[in-house]
Amino acid sequence: MLILVTGGAGYVGSHCVRGLSAAGHNVVVLDNLSRGHRQAVDARATLVVADLGNSAALETLLTQHRFDGVMHFAAFAEVNESVQHPLTYYRNNIAHTVALLDAMRRHEVRRFVFSSTCAVYGVPPRAPITEDMPKDPINPYGRTKLAIEWALADCAAAWGLGSTALRYFNAAGASSDGAIGEDHTPESHLIPRVLQVALGQADSIKIFGEDYPTPDGTCIRDYIHVEDLSDVHVRAIECQPASQFRAFNVGTGVGVSVRELIDAARRVTGHPIPATPAPRREGDPPALFADPARAMKEFNWKPRYIDITDTLKTAWNWHWKHPKGYA
């Protein structure tokens, strides 16, 4: 197939581009490189540098190519930023996505895989989280993702769009060959921030809250390896039914506490990685981890990276070789 990947120069998107290329598909990447990296784009793919909000560029692209499907990653994904600048998120994550869907409708592209998030659940009543739990996002980021899921369901009924929303948890790790990895500015994700301490780029890592109702008092999260994410994205677009919207949780099903992650990083890096306590952050649920059974059954898929140590090894390999990221 010929697949358009929006945001394909970003962290998850670039790994999915590699996965698509490895599976024999042809890929065109659309990315404005504001938060992605040219160096992360697989050499087998074609990179078009343009903003998704540029309707003329999008129209030209869809006119020049007969795409079989679209994978959509071109969204902002920082919770705190979404709280401070909600309209930026509504414009980029909703308005631009609606424009993309409208262009797909006009050009009769009816296969779509959407990068969604567990943030659509807000603070769930229990864990593991299943797809049928209430959707009650607590920040603008989560609300923008849920709004697009609603739009996808409506498009399935209105004009036959076949779409899959993959609600993933904490994307983690780097490619197994160390070629591409995680590079955000500023960096807010826990694993790279922990590894920055091991690299001597920070004095310590803060633990936000040590009094949660969890075994060691710190938050529990589900870290899904980025290559496992790539695998399920490829499978989803390859078996997308027409005129149907589907949504799946994508995670390992294993919860890892902040303290457990830091201890594992100490073993992997051989660095003491000092940790300092800090107050809880507002809106941090005690435990978020997936029940991925539905995705595993639907796509005949199983995550390869279950042990957080194995995921950390790939991340450390990338950060140790690229201490300044792609720069």
Rg over CA atoms? 19 Å
Q: What number is the mean pLDDT?
A: 96
What structural category arises from helix and sheet content? alpha/beta
Largest sheet data: 7 strands, parallel
Spans with pLDDT under 50 lasting ≥5 residues? none
Provide an overview of this structure:
The chain has helices at about 10-20, 55-65, 80-85, 85-105, 140-160, 190-200, 225-240, 260-270, 295-300, 310-320, and strands spanning about 1-5, 25-30, 45-50, 70, 110-115, 160-170, 170, 205-210, 220, 225, 245-250, 255, 275-280, 285-290. The protein is an alpha/beta fold and about 325 residues long. It folds into 2 domains: about 1-170 and about 225-250, NAD(P)-binding Rossmann-like Domain (Rossmann fold), CATH 3.40.50.720; about 175-220 and about 255-320, Alpha-Beta Complex (UDP-galactose 4-epimerase, domain 1), CATH 3.90.25.10. The chain has a 7-stranded parallel beta sheet, with helices on both faces. It has a 3-stranded mixed beta sheet with strand order 12-9-14. α5 (about 140-160) links the parallel β5 (about 110-115) and β6. The model has no long low-confidence stretch (mean pLDDT about 95).
Short key terms for the protein model shown above:
327 residues; alpha/beta; Rossmann fold; UDP-galactose 4-epimerase, domain 1; seven-stranded parallel beta sheet; three-stranded mixed beta sheet; 10 helices; 38% helix; globular
Short structural summary:
The protein is of the alpha/beta class and 327 residues long. The chain contains 10 helices and 14 strands.
